[in-house]
Amino acid sequence: MKKLFAIMLAAMSLSLSGLVLAQDAAPAAAAAVAEVTAAAAADAVPAEVKAEVHKGDVAWMMTATMLVIFMAVPGLALFYGGLVRAKNMLSVLMQVMVVFSLISVLWAVYGYSLAFGGEGLIIGNLDKLFLSGVTMDSLADTFTDNVKLPEYVFIAFQATFAGITCALIVGSFAERMKFSAVLLFSVIWFTFCYLPIAHMVWGAGGYLLDKGALDFAGGTVVHINAGVAGLVGAYLLGKRIGYGKEAMTPHSLTLTMVGASMLWVGWFGFNAGSNLEATSGAALAFINTLFATAAAVLAWTLGEAIFKGKPSMLGAASGAVAGLVAITPACGSVGPMGAIIIGFASGFVCLWGVSGLKKMLGADDSLDVFGVHGVGGILGAILTGVFTAPSLGGTGKDDFSIASQVLIQAEGVVITIVWSAVVAFIAYKIVDVLVGLRVPEDEEREGLDITAHGESAYHY
Prior knowledge:
Largest sheet: 3 strands, mixed
Number of strands: 3
Shape: globular
Mean pLDDT: 91
């Protein structure tokens, strides 16, 4: 009996101990269940992706911006300056430098807002007038969702594109247009042509961007745009006095070659910088800019040797610019072999543009802005739709259609040509009424260096 009683007491003691242990374990079990539930909830709701600003991207983009400035001043200025006669050397340098500076300021005042503000089909808005709301903490998008740039860097980079585009036009009416007329025209054309085209191609909600048009660094926005405006100007101002009767040879091909070389160097910022990040995309644009330009130099040189009997330094320098122009829209989406083909084609086609086509058009496009930039830009824009195909080494998707893309590219080309031509025509007419387009005949004969600026490039 005593044994039975002892066994019952032991059982009761074990039961009570188990109950106490179970009570102690309950909170821990509950905590474990809660932890698992919270983890599942966290997996179900994605955490907000934090924007990243990489120092390497910022450093590269500031360098690229400086390279584009180097393209314009001194690159483009010297390239153009060497091509004109000595009596007009300083006038061209002055026009390029002041136009670039003027447009840079207007970009900060309202240009950036209209080109990249809002999501309009054709133009942006004025939300960022005078860079309103832009601070050191403001960020701009890149091609990677969570990677950003300081907005100030993006604004500065795009300002250089606007500035050099307007400066390019100077070459078409060199040696005969009033300085005040050059500046006034630049303001009007920049406002009503460059900004809408830039927004349509690159701005959020832009018509051509939404259509899928490919223009990595400005084939339409910069080169076709400027080339057409220059051609219209050449027609409206008329030919230089003595054109076709007097020798109008370049006064310094040495300076022209130096300027072309500076353009080539600066163009790496122009094209590779358009990637907005220091990544393999920038490397692709970089190598394409190198190979296409080299191929165009060879093609132009070969073309002159075949058709003119002798290759020239002017031809080699012009070939370099032609290759740079043609690869600009394609540099971020074609492969290196495609770039070489585009460059080689541009050398021959632009050689025809400044010779055969120029005679057909009958305009005195002084420094062949349309023949090189207009023709090269059109060629490059169309061939972008071909060599972006993955089967040809491009970066297009597997379902990429050459025919469809070429049609989209052609639409972008046509829109740019028509828009630029109409706006340029109106702008020139307005300027002619307000201040007059062309300098008097006696001033043109004496040279614009003395008559417009009171100084000479050379003293003998």
